[in-house]
Amino acid sequence: MEKTPRPENANMRTLETDDIDVSKRFDYWQKAITEAFLPLESEQVEDRNFFGRIQVAKVGHLGVSSLAADAQIVRRSRKLIRSSETSSLIFICQTSGIGTIRQDYQEITLKEGDLTFVDSDRPYEFRFDDAFEQAVLQVPKDHFLERCRWIAGSSPIWLDGKAPLTQMVSANLKTLLRVGASLPKECLPQVFDGVIDLLSSALEDATGEMSADETQPRMQHLQRAKRYILNNLKEESLSPGTVAIACGISARYLRNLFAGDGHTVSAWIRMQRLESARMDLERKHRASVPINQIAYRWGFSSYTHFCRLFKSTYGVSPTELRRGKPATSVDNRQPSTEC
Hints:
Blueprint: E1 13-16, H1 25-36, E2 41-44, E3 52-59, E4 62-69, E5 72-76, H2 78-82, E6 88-96, E7 99-103, E8 106-110, E9 115-119, E10 124-128, E11 132-140, H3 141-145, H4 164-179, H5 188-207, H6 216-231, H7 240-247, H8 251-260, H9 265-282, H10 291-297, H11 303-314, H12 318-322
Antiparallel strand pairs: 1-3, 2-5, 3-4, 4-11, 5-10, 6-9, 6-11, 7-8, 7-10
């Protein structure tokens, strides 16, 4: 199994748990991933000595990293998003092990060689049930959207590791990790841009989209609407009508924006509320909070309706999920009377 290259140049910063007291390693790790990327929270999956290593090189807000660590869950919550000053697209190439990524109700499983991305302005979750390695490219959102405008507001897209363009992106990331810190500083922006151009081509090849298909105003309206929804999920009165009014657009135009993204407005609101509730239910420090309070917290006015939606979406009841039963696919589900 091919490993992510370890950079040979001392100018690339390394954050590693090996020299940290065993009892303090995971606390150190949680601070390290925030320092290397952006504000994140992490949860240890196994009660054992933890290992984690990040090697990162940055040029301004552009960054490339190699990451190797033991099993864990990493989340970016709305609270952490509000504390951030920058907006990024995070591109992840799985170089070893298996990882599951959730954002916008979309779940993607990454195997060795596969690639995807997440948007730092919307909540997401990474889950790794065993040791893993990744190559990560962090790009300011505006910088990437100059090349790939249609991706604004998109849910994560899976890029098959067997596809030629995905393999080229992976190879370039590994090369950048191996020799990037040794390159003259003035060359690095052009090198990063070359990798970003490849990523844009790989995404367009995988989806059949072209960057000219979306206009800048439409993109901005969709982003503003989604931002308003995410900031007001806890408001029971949140609806397509209130979103349209807040964004200064017609209800019809709002519907068209979301239809182009593959959703209705109401479905996207419901999806974000369910995901927020699911993440709360899986957080250990919220294990004592009654489930109905979590449902009401995220804008559900009926606890029974919440339980029914949750079961039909995740294949388990909220109580079952909290007890550790994993969510399943949407197929062949039976109605549940337990909540």
